[in-house]
C-alpha cells in the first residue's frame, strides 16, 4: 500500500499527530530502547536510516539529505518509510518519507511545547524559513493560543513567505530580528545554522525554547548560557549524547551535565514539576519511534477509509 504526501497530510492532522506521540509515551514506550539512526556520508550529501519496533509494528525511514537541492527546485530531504506488521514482519505500507518528516518533526516540538509553555503563552519567534518553519506554525497552533509570530531568517523574501503562511492561518506575523526573543513566550529554531542564533540572556524567565534544526555534534542553534540557565529536556539521553550539538558542545567545555537533563517521557507523564521562573529548553534531534507512532496512526486511518 502506497501512501503519498497528500494523503499523509489528509489522514493525520497536526493535533492528531501530537496526540499519537503523547499516547505512545503514556502507554509506556521508553525512547531509550529505540533504534539508532545510522548515517552514511555520500559524495553529494547523506543517507540516513531510522528503524523502530513495537510488538505491533516494525518500521524504518530511509531519507537522503542533499544540501543545495533547493537551488535546483528539488527538496533537500527525500525518502521513504517502510512499515511492517509486528508479528510476521510482513510489509504492509510504504509512505512518502519527506511528508512524514514534515509532520512528525513539528508534532514532536508541539508535544514538548504543550508541556513546557506558560498557560497563557500566545507569542512565538520562529528562526528559519524552510519547510519546517512553515510546518511549525500549524504545530504551535495545535497546542497554544497563538496570536503572533516573529519570523527571523537570513532571506527577507523567504522570511516574508513564512509570515504570509502564518497570516493565512489567522495569526499576526512580522519579519523580525533575533532580539524579538525578548518578547517571546515560545521560541523555535529550525535552521541549519552551525552557531547560536540569538542571545539567550534576552529570554523571559517563563519562555519555552525548542531547538530542532541540528542532529549532529558539530552544529548548534543555541548558546551555552541557555543550557546553564534553563531546565533542559531531551528526547532520550542516548540520542542526545550522540547527536545534540546544542548540548554536546557546552558539555565538552564543562558547562553542561547531561545528568541534569530530563526526558520528554518524564515530562509528558508528569514525573517532573517544572519551575515557573526558569526557561524550559527542549533539544530535539528526531527519533525513529516518532515516525513509527505517526505512521501506525496513518496506516490505521487509511485501512479504515
Q: How would you characterize this protein structure?
A:
It contains ten helices and 14 strands. The protein has an eight-stranded parallel β-sheet with strand order 9-8-7-10-11-14-12-13. The chain has a six-stranded mixed β-sheet with strand order 1-6-5-4-3-2. The protein has 305 residues and is of the alpha/beta class. Helix 1 runs parallel beside helix 3, helix 2 crosses helix 3 and helix 3 (97-116) crosses helix 10 (288-304). 36% of the residues lie in helices and 23% in strands. Strand 2 and strand 3 form a beta hairpin. The chain has two domains: 2-101 and 289-304, ornithine cyclodeaminase, domain 1 (2-Layer Sandwich), CATH 3.30.1780; 118-286, Rossmann fold.
Descriptors:
305 residues; alpha/beta; ornithine cyclodeaminase, domain 1; Rossmann fold; 2 domains; 8-stranded parallel sheet; 10 helices; 23% strand; Ornithine cyclodeaminase family protein; NAD(P)-bd_dom_sf; ODC_Mu_crystall; ODC_N
| CATH topology type of the largest domain | Rossmann fold
Characterize the overall form: globular
Strand order of the largest sheet: 9-8-7-10-11-14-12-13
Q: CATH H-level name of the largest domain... which superfamily?
A: NAD(P)-binding Rossmann-like Domain
Strand tally: 14
Structural class: alpha/beta
Radius of gyration from CA coordinates: 18 Å
pLDDT < 50 stretches: none
Mean pLDDT level: 95
Into which percentage range does the β-strand content fall?
Answer: 15-25%
Largest sheet: 8 strands, parallel
Helix content: 25-40%
Going by CATH, the architecture of the largest domain would be: 3-Layer(aba) Sandwich
How many H/I helical runs?
10
Assigned CATH class of the largest domain? Alpha Beta
